[in-house]
Amino acid sequence: MKIHEYQAKELFRQANIPVPMGYAASTVDEAIAAAAKLSTPKVVVKAQIHAGGRGKGGGVKVVDNTPEAVRTAATAILGMQLITHQTGPEGQTVKSLLIEEGSAIATELYLSFILDRANSQVLVMASPDGGMDIEEVAEKTPERLLKRHIHPAVGMPAYLVREICQFLAIPKEGAKEAAQLITNLYNLYVEKDCSLVEINPLVVTTDNRVLALDGKVTFDSNALYRHPAIVALRDTDEEDPLEVEASKFNLNYIKLDGNVACMVNGAGLAMATMDIIKLVGEKTGAAPANFLDVGGSASQDGIENAFRIIMSDPSVEVVLINIFGGILRCDKLANGVVAAAKNLDMKLPMVIRMKGTNVEQGKEILANSDIQFAVAETMKEAAEKVVQFLKQPVGV
Ligand code: GDP
Ligand code: MN
């Protein structure tokens, strides 16, 4: 789960990680009132969306701390469709702002903690080249990016904190503050079950203060049950509407940009299904429209909801149902699919592959229904039938 910068900075404040003073605002008047509470000659008006790269897209403006200047900047940014390299081509509508004290920046640095799944450790990354795309630094000047693993049982060792400060060339006046910040950020990462905390840029000011000028925090969704206060920070406006809908029914759904809707039980089978669509359909432009794991114990209702969600995606041209009947028996699945297809007045071609418990009964239910299904025995055959449907106009 992601949160906004202003929420991340509130968590930073609570964790003793220095941030500029600032307030969130969702109207131009609120923005002006917020700026009036700040005493710096400059203020920063920042778009709050769940994506980085806002600066380059025109979503961050440093302006004079006057009501007129703040009004102009806030009016320009609020409601804009902000397009960055992380939003996708359609961009994201800006619904709130962060109004912050302007900082006198001497240097912009980069600092992050992320989970390294490959070796089950936390990875800390630091670079003296902050404010830029860190992927670019990693690719073009890898020697400017320090990467170190932290064993969770050991925690953040003092020598590593010193190594990072040295690598970042923190001036000695700011060394103590920087060391505290690095340690506190690691503790926040662990205590709040984060999967990422990133400060880009972390800045040293002209008077040698060390501040988090940006803040990106992502939480491990599987651990959210331990953090009700963090769940309360969720902003579903920033998420894909179909994914929000699916989460209400405990469906594991991820929207993708292809044309073949997939309904599968089990995450592994769902991944394999997406792979075979790609493998068989690559040249014909077939690609998965979604990842969907309906779970092992989906009810008829669950199947209908899943159907409704995958069908709400306008790019879908064919549906591929691939179910292994274990806990969810094939006859129950077939009944669910037939009912859902009828209720939703399904017009698109459907390919179905079932295996497992009660598969014969399942096939009979499909055959006796007045809905048209193409039945496949193997996954490859299923994918080939999907491709066939894509090649011919619907209904032929
Ligand atoms: P992002 O583009 O979404 O990552 O947004 P950031 O919060 O990182 O802001 C982008 C850039 O705006 C930063 O790298 C800074 O160069 C600049 N910026 C942000 N806040 C201030 C500030 O208080 N003073 C000055 N001078 N520049 C700022
Ligand atoms: Mn940034």
Global structural class: alpha+beta
Query: At the first level of CATH, what is the class of the largest domain?
Result: Alpha Beta
> In total, how many domains does the architecture comprise?
3
Portion in helices = 25-40%
How many distinct beta strands? Answer: 18
CATH architecture of the largest domain: 2-Layer Sandwich
Mean pLDDT: 93
Question: How would you characterize this protein structure?
Answer:
The protein is an alpha+beta fold. The protein has three domains: 1-19 and 105-239, 2-Layer Sandwich (D-amino Acid Aminotransferase, Chain A, domain 1), CATH 3.30.470; 21-102, Dna Ligase, domain 1 (2-Layer Sandwich), CATH 3.30.1490.20; 240-391, 3-Layer(aba) Sandwich (Rossmann fold), CATH 3.40.50.261. Helices cover 35% and strands 25% of the residues. It has helices spanning 5-14, 28-36, 67-77, 134-140, 158-167, 175-191, 228-231, 241-248, 267-281, 300-311, 330-343, 359-368, 379-391, and strands spanning 22-25, 42-47, 60-64, 81-82, 92-93, 97-101, 105-116, 121-127, 146-150, 194-205, 210-212, 216-219, 252-255, 260-264, 290-293, 318-325, 350-356, 374-376. The strands form five sheets. Strands 7, 8, 9, 10, 11 and 12 form a six-stranded antiparallel β-sheet that branches. Strands 1-6-2-3 form a four-stranded antiparallel β-sheet, with helices on one face. Helix 11 (330-343) runs parallel beside helix 12. It starts with a helix and ends in a 5-residue tail after the last helix. Manganese (II) ion binds at residues 52, 200, 214. The site of manganese (II) ion has 3 residues, from loops.
